[in-house]
Amino acid sequence: MASGKLNLYSNSGKILTISTPDDLVNDKTIVPLGKSDFIANKSTNGYQKLPSGLIIQWGKVQIKNSSSDADSTVSANVTFPISFPNTLLNVFVSSQENGHMEASEHVLTVVSASSSAAKLLAERLTGTNDDNENFYLNWLAIGY
Fold it and tell me: Which of 80, 85, 122, 123 is the most exposed place for a label (fewest CB within 10 A)?
């Protein structure tokens, strides 16, 4: 490398200065990233693909209680917006209130999951509210 500095820039400004060959540690290659490296569907049930291959998917499903009895269950089948091409790492589920106490009266579980879908379960702990109340399950899935 000739004497002097090499400055690398992106559209947002300078990202790296190389003064000596030692600045290129471990033979790393700098690859510029563009919008196509961050493919996304930003809808209610959407996903984000990252340059590393990691995929984050999210969504929400409305469920309706069929009973106000404690220990009653209701399930929802969720199909991911896209299948994970290699493996699903984890699925998380949380509840969203609807103005009543429906969601907080449940224990939420991911019963099963695959690279393309998951089954979510809400088990009612108390029987204090009316049946036939709707609430939402929010889910987040991570894989690659």
Answer: 85
- Residue 113: partners with Cβ closer than 8 Å, 6 or more residues away: 88, 91, 119, 141
Q: What is the pLDDT of residues 39-87, one digit of tens each?
A: 999 999 999 999 899 999 999 999 877 666 667 788 999 999 999 999 9
Which range marks the domain in which residue 69 is found? 35-143
Asked if 115 and 79 count as a contact pair (C-beta separation under 8 A), the reply is no
pTM of the model: 0.70
The CATH number for 139's domain is: 2.60.40.3940
Count Cβ atoms below 10 Å from residue 90 Cβ, excluding itself.
10
When divided into structural domains, the chain yields a total of 1
